[in-house]
Amino acid sequence: MTGTELALAGCVALMLAGAAGTALATDLTRLVLSLGLFLVAVALIFVVLASPLLAVSQVFVYVGGVLVLLLFALMIVRRAREGRPRVESRHDIAAAATAIGVFLVLLLAQSPVDSAFPAEVQVSPSEVGDALLGADLVAFELVGMLLLAALLAVLVIVKGAKDG
Hints:
Layout: H1 3-24, H2 28-48, H3 52-76, H4 92-108, H5 113-116, H6 125-133, H7 138-163
């Protein structure tokens, strides 16, 4: 095995540990930290595959944004009697069966990358951006403003509940 293959195998092991911790945790704090391990392992895979922009984006958007938001939400929610929020699920078997089914479908649907994209198709990053977001980013900015307003509304509601 080459060094790259060993590094990828280590990242996959970290991803599996994070995914298992996320799926099996009953404590919300440990669940969020396991999710963080999984997301950091994905960023490490991008580093190993020489995609620093994707790695930095992964860290900023998911680890820095989503996880901080989840931890912030954990801090403001009402605590369970023992002082820590708990996760109780009655759908473990159905979730495991669904995950195995999705994995099998993805495994059976694998096709070589070369046959999926013909070599003569050349698309620039700006064309991809225009296709996804359009020429102007008004809708994207409006969604960002809506999310910010929702976060501020949660803060006002929580502060009002503590005062009252």
